[in-house]
Amino acid sequence: MERHFDEELRKLKTQLLAMAGHVERSIEHAADALVGRAAEAIPNIYELEEEVNREHKSVDEACLRLLALQQPLAADLRLIVAVIKINTDLERMGDQAVNIAHHTERYMADRAKPEVLVDLPEMFSETRFMVREAIDAFVKNDETLARDVLKRDDRVDAFKHKIYSDILKILQSGAKDIEQGFSLILIARNLERIADHATNIAEDVIFAITGSDVRHSPRTGPF
Amino acid sequence: MILKSENLEAWFGETKALKGVGLEFESNTITAIIGPSGCGKSTYIRCLNRLHEETPGARIGGRVLLQGRNIYGPEVDPVLLRRQIGMVFQKPNPFPSMSVYDNVAVGLKLGGIRKKRELDSRVEWSLRLAALWDEVKDKLARPGISLSGGQQQRLCIARALAVKPVVLLMDEPTSALDPVSTARIEELLTDLKKTVTIIIVTHNMQQSARISDKTAFLLMGELVEFGETSALFTTPKDKRTESYITGRFG
Amino acid sequence: MANQFEMEREMRAEQPGRRITNVLMCSALAFAAFVAIIPLVSVFGYVFLKGFSSVSIEFFTSMPKPVGEIGGGMANALAGTGILVGLAGLVGIPWGLAAGVYLSEYVAAGEKGAGLGGSAIRFAIDMLASIPSIIVGLFVYVLVVMPFKHFSAWAGGLALGILMIPTVARTTEELLKMVPVHVREAGLALGLPRWKVIVHIVLKGSLRPISTGIVLAIARVSGETAPLLFTAFGNQYWSHDLSAPIASLPVQIYTYAVSPFDEWHRQAWAGALVLILFVSSLNLLTRVIIKPSGRAGA
User: Fold this and answer.
1) Which residue of B has its CA nearest to C179?
2) HSE-up of C169 (CA within 13 Å, CB side)?
3) Dist. CA C89–CA C126, nearest whole Å
4) B249 touching A, CB under 8 A?
5) Angular region, C76: left φ>0, alpha ψ -120 to 50, beta rest
6) What ipTM, to 2 d.p.?
7) Residue ranges of the domains in chain C?
8) Using an 8 Å Cβ cutoff, are A30 and A101 in contact?
9) If you ran DSSP here, which 8-state letter would residue B11 be given?
10) Which residues of B touch C296 (CB under 8 A)?
């Protein structure tokens, strides 16, 4: 039996997906700016951030309303709780993209030096893949996709460590661009955070589908 | 575990209303029984105090064990059993033309207790347990039916408690009451379970969620799922339970 | 959305025809009700007119005078009716109540085993209610008067009692059936045996309306004449012996009314008036009994 409530849930999901789309585009613009050397992409990130913040508030509002008025149970309840959490993770991802934008601007302030981006392009790739996969898992209600996201988190962590040690080596070998190196390290950290949020989203999706809480458990991954 | 049904079946003439229901009830807990209309939940609890067999043409199969003894054993007197397992009904039904006091005392008086002091203290005890004492202590001689609906139902609860049963069965006790009275009775039940084990049939799932420790879901005379209320309402194991509690049928 | 104007127009168009019909019907019904009251009013009025002047203290306190003498009263008949009604109550009330309780609590409830017997009892009571009272009188004549070889107050009381049974039984059954099932169940659920539930809860709760039924049954039998002709027979004197014939108001009225004496006719009218007032006041009494308990709490 189709319920009005199902219609409401569909609208909620659509709202969340729109927000996820904006966050993904933000990250894409950040990648373009740094890796693709397209400084004009940066203002887009700030614009999208405003939109994402608005959506953050309205998704929370919608969830609160549904909880109060419909007293949902079981899968409906888990879905709405998951949406509230995913909402937060998406908004944080947006914030991280903005941080990347700031650091990229600082990094590009001195163009005289040759650019050494170490493994950042690959890290960007992997992170963006995780974000896409987590959102897909939500859309398709697919537990397998979600679990794959969880496995990939270790890879991103490994990237971050490598980038840290690579840049440390470069600086120790005498290069004088400490500020630039610093910016790159911070960008790596932002990306790692984005990957963490993608992992959170995957955990929330698993909770919504199965009811099991898989957070904080040791992960078996390729690394 | 104070009460248990094993493969309980029940018939009304040729119609089988319960198809082998097995449930266990722990002492001092509230267990809710939910399910769509006609699923057999009222029939089930009426088998627990042997009220079902008072209907002509009704019979049961299986066993019900109260503290280990089968209540359908040949040596058990249903009248005495019902002093151990009390019942509160859907529509508040204070006895007509009896005062508040007499309503509460009737089970005691007709059960052989005559001494005024003892009656007085039991009546007060029961009315306090039913959260009604303060409202009626000056009106004990007024007719039972002069109270409001919510008060009448609490009077019926007091009446049932007066004979000190170990289990209290409640058949949709708040469905005829307004939300404020309902809330008051739910509050008192949560305290009451310290004194008596409660089994409540309800078609209001939020009520079951609010007050019960465990919930059983019956469908067409069968037990579909039984478990901790919080688990059943957040992560039900059976698809039918999920469909029912999310309102997809029933 | 229908045009509001059209709706109003439609409503108004029906008005005159409907209203007239309504008024006509109401008037017709009121007229019919009025016509139905006419016999009551005329009987009362006529008896009152004819009997009023003859009702006096003497009427209530003195014995009938022999033929030809003026004065006297119907003291013995009044006392006799009282005694007969009392005896009738002894028979009619307990048996009527018991039958009513049985029919309501066991038969109507559908107890197995009560099925055939219950239908038989109900049938019997319905038949009993429609047996002409004179036949009942004859029955008691054969049963009691003939073996003992004389008329008696016992016989009269028995006949009237038998006539009371169906009324009391039916009223009791109907009133008990009005007590909802869950009141009985609540009693059972308290761990009370069936009979205690019936007596202490169901019956006790219906005492007022049941006593109304009993009062009405008494009012009915106190005016019965035919059965008394074969049982109590009648007596011009005081009777202290219940196994002797006894006077009663209806029989005395009858005896005097068919006599050729004007004085006796006068007494008969007085007796008729007293009888009618007695029955009416019993009826009014039931209204007084019912009224205070009629308003249930909110």
Assistant:
1) B96
2) 24
3) 20
4) yes
5) alpha
6) 0.90
7) 79-248
8) yes
9) E
10) 145
Say yes or no for a CB contact (<8 Å) between B159 and C297: no
- Rounded distance, CA B221 to CA B62, Å? 14
Query: Which domains, and CATH codes, for chain B?
Result: 3-93+167-245 (3.40.50.300)
Closest CA to B97 of C287, C186, C293: C293
pLDDT tens for B13-38 read: 889 999 999 999 999 999 999 999 88
Could you give the residue ranges of the DSSP H alpha helices within B21-146? 41-48, 78-84, 100-109, 116-129, 133-136
Q: How far apart are CA A11 and CA B243, in angstroms?
A: 21
Q: Tell me the pLDDT tens digit for each residue of B80-131.
A: 999 999 999 999 999 988 999 999 999 998 888 889 999 999 999 999 999 9
Residue B197's φ and ψ, nearest 5 degrees, are -80, 135
Residue pair B3/B64 in contact (Cβ under 8 Å)? The answer is: yes
pLDDT digits (tens, 9 = 90+) for A145-165: 999 999 999 999 999 999 999
Is A68 part of the contact surface with chain B (CB cutoff 8 Å)?
no
Query: Neighbours of C (≥3 Cβ pairs closer than 8 A)?
Result: B
Please indicate whether, in this complex, the C-beta atoms of B163 and C298 are within 8 angstroms of each other: no
pTM metric for this prediction: 0.79
- The count of other CB atoms within 10 Å of the CB of residue C191 is 24
The nearest alpha carbon in chain B to A76 belongs to B246
Structure-token match 């006593």, residue found = C211
Shortest distance between the Cα of C94 and any Cα of chain B, in A, equals 22
Give the position of tokens 């887009």: A44
Q: Which residues of C252-270 are buried (b: 16+ CB within 10 A; e: fewer)?
A: bbbbbeeeeeebbbbbbbb
Q: Which of B206, B235, B249 sits opposite A74 (nearest CB)?
A: B235
A vs B, Cβ pairs < 8 A, gives: 32
Compute the radius of gyration of chain C from its Cα atoms. 26
Region A96-107 average pLDDT? 92
Q: Is C298 a residue whose pLDDT tops 50? A: no
User: Which amino acid makes up residue B250?
Assistant: G
Q: Is C79-248 in CATH node 3.40.50.300? A: no
Query: What kind of fold does domain A4-210 have according to CATH?
Result: Methane Monooxygenase Hydroxylase; Chain G, domain 1 (1.20.58)
Residue B181, min C-alpha distance to chain C (Å): 15
Angle between helices A120-140 and A178-210 (to 10 degrees): 20
Q: B212 Cβ partners below 8 Å, 6+ apart? A: B30, B31, B32, B200, B229
For B16, the token pair is 């089988």
Q: Given B209, B236, B247, which is nearest A3 (Cβ)?
A: B247
Identify the closest residue of chain B to C114 by CA–CA distance.
Answer: B56
**Cross-chain residue pair C185–B51, CB shorter than 8 Å:** yes
d(Cα A86, Cα A136) in Å, to the nearest integer?
13
CA distance B166 to A115: 81
C111 lies within 8 A of chain B by CB: yes
The rounded distance, in Å, linking the Cα atoms of C221 and C248 is 12
C108 vs C100: CA distance, rounded Å: 10
Q: How many CB atoms lie within 10 A of CB C12?
A: 9
The strand order across the sheet containing B222-228 reads B85-88, B167-171, B197-201, B30-34, B214-219, B222-228
Chain B residues whose CB is inside 8 A of the A210 CB are 235
Q: Which residues are paired to B88 by β-bridges?
A: B170
Tally Cβ neighbours within 10 Å of residue B111.
17
- Backbone φ, ψ for residue A176 (5° rounding): -100, 0
